[in-house]
Write a structure and sequence with these properties.
The chain has 5 helices and 10 strands. It is α/β, with parallel strands linked by helices. It has a single domain, classed as TIM Barrel (Alpha-Beta Barrel). The protein has an 8-stranded mixed beta barrel.
């Protein structure tokens, strides 16, 4: 992959935060309270994309299964092994091609956020997406922690370092949990959940401080967004 195509020049030392306003999309604010990007929880495979007034829209890379008519997200954390199949990536690619012209016309840049249970679920899938689509219209909002499964926590540092080595220089935004992460649910329903910044470090299975320590060497050239937890 040609790294020069995907490297960005924006640098920041102050993390961005999510607006408390319950809108979709929700603004991501800089330290002065100015919106720099917007975050939507819709399923990109099945739902219309909302208009981004900032011209930068961050969205999950999509999950299989139907959404509700109102754009509900009740199935987005379910395990579905079909997401690993070539046809799942083909569905995402077809969807991106179908919205490219509209995004170009409106001047919107769509940044996809990976997740272990969505279509962009590992470094290889993300690298393929960047090779196929990265440019003025599409990019990556890298969320290394969301690419982990609960079973990966004992070796989380190794996984996170590997993700950053492969993708860190190709991302426009770096998404971090505001207060660390915790395993919620049991058995097949277990997943990692982001915690708000008010969470005591001892209540996190992987604290924000540990995540920051692991990822700090790769952070300097990313817009950093501290996510308090997506409902």
């Amino acid at each position: 992959m040609d790294t020069s195509r995907h490297r960005h020049a924006v640098q920041t030392s102050t993390p961005h935060t999510l607006s408390p306003a319950p809108t979709n999309p929700r603004p991501i604010l800089d330290a002065q309270g100015n919106p720099r990007a917007e975050w939507t929880t819709v399923n990109i495979l099945t739902d219309p994309l909302p208009k981004a007034t900032t011209k930068t829209l961050i969205a999950w890379s999509g999950w299989l299964g139907e959404s509700s008519p109102s754009g509900g997200t009740e199935r987005r954390w379910e395990r579905d092994h079909r997401t690993w199949s070539p046809s799942a990536y083909d569905q995402l690619a077809a969807r991106l091609r179908s919205i490219r012209e509209h995004a170009e016309h409106t001047g919107t840049k769509l940044l996809l956020r990976p997740h272990a249970r969505h279509i962009l679920n590992d470094p290889q899938r993300c690298a393929r997406y960047l090779t196929d689509f990265a440019g003025p219209t599409f990019g990556l909002a890298l969320d290394p922690v969301s690419m982990l499964e609960p079973s990966m926590l004992p070796s989380a540092e190794e996984h996170l370092v590997r993700i950053m080595e492969r993708l860190g220089s190709h991302t426009h935004w770096l998404v971090l949990p505001e207060g660390g992460i915790r395993v919620v649910g049991q058995g097949e329903d277990a997943r990692l959940a982001f915690l708000p910044g008010t969470t005591p470090p001892g209540e996190a299975d992987l604290s924000h401080a540990d995540i920051h320590r692991i990822l700090t060497p790769s952070m300097s050239q990313a817009n950093i967004w501290l996510d308090p937890g997506t409902p």
